[in-house]
Amino acid sequence: MMNKINTLSLILLVVFIPCLSLLLIAIFAPCLIINPCIAEEERSLYIVLVEGESLAFLHNVASNFDSEAYQAHAKLLENFHNQLLQTTLDSGSYTKIHSFTHLATGFAVHTSHSQAEKLRKNPRVKLMQKDRGAKLMTTYTPEFLKLPLGVWAREGGEKNAGEGVVVGFVDSGINPIHPSFAYDDFTSPTTRNSSRVFSGACEAGPRFPASSCNGKIVSARFFAAGAQAVAALNASVDFLSPFDAVGHGSHVASTAAGNYGVPVVVDGFFYGTASGMAPRAQIAVYKAIYPTVGTLSDVLAAIDQAVKDGVDILTLTVEPDEPPEDTITFLDVFEIFTLLARRAGVFVVQAAGNKGPGPSSVVSFSPWAVGVAACSTDRRYPATLFLGPTLGDGMLKYKLVLAKDAVRVDGSFPRTPPYTEECQHPEALDPIAVSGSLVICTFSEGFFNQTSTISAIFGTARTLGFMGFVLIANPAYGDFISEPIPFPVPGIMIPKTADAKIITQYYEEQTQRTEQGCVIRYAGSASIGEGRVASYQEQLPAVSRFSSRGPDIIDSHRNLADVLKPDFVAPGQQIWAAWSPLSVSEPIYEGKKFAIMSGTSMAAPHIAGIAALIKQHNPAWTPSMVASAMSTTAAKYDNSGDTIPAEGYDLGSLLPSTPFDIGAGLVNPERALDPGLVFMPREGEYVAFLCSLSNVSRVAVEAATGGSCDHPLGHPADLNLPSVTITSLIGSQAVQRSVINVGRKQETYLCAVLPPNGVTVDVSPTWFTIAPMGAQDLVIKLNATQVLKHFSYGEIVLTGSLDHIVRVPLSVLPVSIS
What is the pLDDT of residue 39? Predict the structure, then answer.
């Protein structure tokens, strides 16, 4: 990233000019609500599932939510919840927060530890967990994913893409006046392209009038009982309405289903036009996270309502940030709710998490919900820092001043790095020295401890009249990670210590000092080039460093699960999308309608929107069929034909990715419309999978899911997924799979195998002919030939006579050859 140096000038190519911020992860975390130091009898939130039939699966009732029978049964369940609490807990010792009646039957209760233990011992309680809190986890990506000439063209163009599909979002709400969500020629009711009946509602409140539901936004609700129970909400930002004061929820919703061709203008600069993946799809909002706090209880209530309302796709970019303690990950109450949502016919999308690049860092665990990793695209925002008197045409040079050299000698401020090096406090700097200069600020302990901010540098620059700033890496802390944002003042980030060293060397050579080290003359000069113009010449894509990785885990002891996670990868780095001008968690974006953000929360809505397109094209498909189609047609190669790389621990390092980085690969929307074959778990197979797990109580599985363990799978790897993951291959193992032909014609498939190292793989039959909607069973026999310390990877490729290609990733750890 560094150009040739000479005595007259130095050109450093880095990322973005008035547009770079130190954002390690662009995911909001306003809400860790459990304090481990609270007194035992202080109240906490508990989530409780109890015996009884939930309404979503009650025959002759579930399909008509407005019927007298549905309402009467819901009332019976709520009365049962109230009675159970009244007869178990002491009067006045609790507050019921939510009753769950649709997906599951249970409630959230605010009570003390001792009272909760009484409740836990009640024989009618099936599952009880303490609320762990919840966190919040575009202009170019439609072109990157080839939607305009691909899927959109098939559906009649961008004005029809996603027609008749409702996408639900559990997040921080929505900004209803944003042009991405404007009324867009919905002159007549949209034709419902689904067997599911949608019946949402618009809950008005502060900054969210009833007219906000306009045909694009078809439903908007908010859930705050849990938040109100555990924290004092701030009325100036914690609006009791679906309004998004943060911006995160608006960003996610517009990425999936925002209107087509919305101009992105920030600080007067035009960055292009934005569009969601399914611009004609409709949006249902379920706000469950607030700037002050977020609770799992409110999130579960939102999921329950979204499924009851009838959404087709449910996007969860908010979830518990840590694996559950003392329980199987798949039996966590959050995972149970997503299982029930899938059973009810909803395609559930989750952000995989932002704890990469370490192994087993995913927070999307279950095979019934799609976990999405994040990758870059080929778009970059290169900026230029010119050092020395030889500058580009028309560029103005400015005096270079190191902040440490401009510290006031008469100040009463602390002599700590935020004051002396980081440009966080204008009172610490000599205005005569820095006014009209390019000031070099240094990454130091304040940034390392995440207490210093780029926003503070902006404030200092404005107050003291900087012509710009340069934030350089500090050898004491190493390279840092930066992500682009629009700067309100000229600035540039130098995140690599090697580049920073060149700048400081030039500065020292040009600066005259006394014997005591005091500056008597600043002779160095520099200029910052334009950095807001995108470049599209980079290799693409690469798994983002922050993106969480597999292998999946089965419990808090980090035992591995025979399930591939993440499922696949989608663009999630430097994504432009809608925002909320209040931007209470990101002051940099205050007053702005768009933000460029990074995180798996940005990747997940890409999959949600693409799922809407697939659902529009194939309305009869189940969620499992949609997930399989995306998986088996995904690409594992980048634009140069090499395996998609993944960013590692070291800044700038790239390694070949594995399925634990990318899942099946980068989603290919057009191929996913017509995958040829799909893998679809049979009715009850997810419960059978849970029952087959070792060291898992079948009684606990039946209690949590309402299913039966009478017919467990022979092995967890027999779950009919479009991938095979075996975390401990001992000798030989046969794995069962079944495929269905969703094509319109009979087709013959030939099986080929790229075996993992240390393993032989045989597929039987080696070829087969399958009729439309016909099924074919496959037996995959794996034999360990070499003991390995690490996983090895391969794939099965089923090639059809009508040009369908079905890829099945293999991830195997051979631990014994006998």
Answer: 42
Q: How many CB atoms lie within 10 A of CB 63?
A: 14
202-206's contacts with Cβ under 8 Å and 24+ in sequence apart are 203/241, 203/242, 204/241, 205/239, 205/240, 205/241, 205/242, 205/243, 206/239, 206/240, 206/241, 206/243
Please identify which of the residues 601, 624, 692, 792 carries the catalytic annotation. Answer: 601
> What are the tens digits of pLDDT across the range 639-651?
788 899 999 888 7
Q: CATH number of the domain that 394 lies in?
A: 3.50.30
Let me know whether 501 and 473 are in one domain. Answer: yes
Q: Cβ atoms within 10 A of the Cβ of 534, count? A: 17
Residue 740 pLDDT > 50, yes or no? yes
Lowest mean pLDDT among 61-70, 112-121, 207-216, 411-420: 61-70
Inter-residue contact 608 to 585 (CB < 8 Å): no
Partnered with residue 102 across adjacent β-strands are: none
Percent of all residues in the chain with a pLDDT value above 90, rounded to a whole number = 65
Mark whether 514 and 425 lie in a shared domain: yes
- Catalytic (active site) residue 657: no
Beta carbons of 220 and 212 less than 8 angstroms apart: yes
Question: Can you tell me the distance from the alpha carbon of 530 to that of 513, in angstroms, rounded to the nearest whole number?
Answer: 32
Could you list the residue range(s) of the whole structural domain that residue 726 is in? 720-816
Q: Determine the angle formed by the axes of helices 333-343 and 698-705, rounding to 10 degrees.
A: 60
Percent of the chain exceeding pLDDT 70 equals: 88
Quick: pLDDT tens for 183-211: 866 444 455 666 678 989 999 999 999 99
Query: Which residue intervals of 258-399 are DSSP H helices?
Result: 296-309, 333-343
Please list, in sequence order, all residues whose beta carbon lies within 8 angstroms of the beta carbon of residue 590, skipping any fewer than 6 positions away.
581, 582, 583
5 in any annotated domain? no
Q: Tell me the Ramachandran region of residue 214: left when phi exceeds 0, alpha when psi lies from -120 to 50, beta otherwise.
A: alpha
Residues 524 and 546 placed together within one structural domain of the fold: no
Catalytic residue among 21, 99, 171, 804: 171
3-class DSSP assignment, residue 439 = strand
* Residues 6+ positions from 813 with CB-CB distance below 8 Å: 726, 727, 728, 729, 788, 790, 791, 792
790 noted as active-site residue:
no
* Pairing of the two strands 575-578 and 594-597: antiparallel
Confidence of residue 162 (pLDDT cuts 50, 70, 90): confident
Q: How far is CA 344 from the centre of its chain?
A: 23
415 and 357 in a single domain? The answer is no
Domain contains 335: yes
Of 98, 248, 251, 804, which is the active-site residue?
Answer: 248
User: Where does the pLDDT of residue 20 fall: very low under 50, low under 70, confident under 90, or very high at 90 and above?
Assistant: very low
Which pLDDT does position 249 carry in this prediction? 96
Nearest CA-CA partner of 355 in 555, 117, 544, 616? 544
Q: Is residue 34 part of a domain?
A: no
Non-local CB neighbours of 338 within 8 Å, separated by 6+ positions: 303, 316, 348, 350, 366, 368, 369
Mark whether 585 is an active-site residue: no
- Confidence (pLDDT) at 509: 92
The residue type at 144:
F
Query: Which of 130, 156, 173 is the last residue in one of the domains?
Result: 130
- For residue 324, is pLDDT > 80? no
| Least confident residue range of 78-82, 158-162, 258-262, 381-385 | 158-162
The CA distance from 197 to 58, in Å, is 16
Read off the pLDDT of each residue in 380-406 and give the average, rounded to a whole number: 78
Alpha-helical (H) ranges within 258-374 are 296-309, 333-343
Full DSSP string of 721-780: -SSEEEEEEESEEEEEEEEEE-SSS-EEEEEEEEPPTTEEEEEESSEEEE-TT-EEEEEE
Segment among 187-196, 414-423, 482-491 with least mean pLDDT: 187-196
Asked if residue 38 is part of any domain, the answer here is no
* Confidence tier at 2 by pLDDT (50, 70, 90): very low
Instruction: Give the span between the Cα atoms of 182 and 686, in whole angstroms.
Output: 40
Written as one string, the DSSP assignment of 142-176 is HHHTT-TTTHHHHTTSTTTTTTT-EEEEEES-B-T
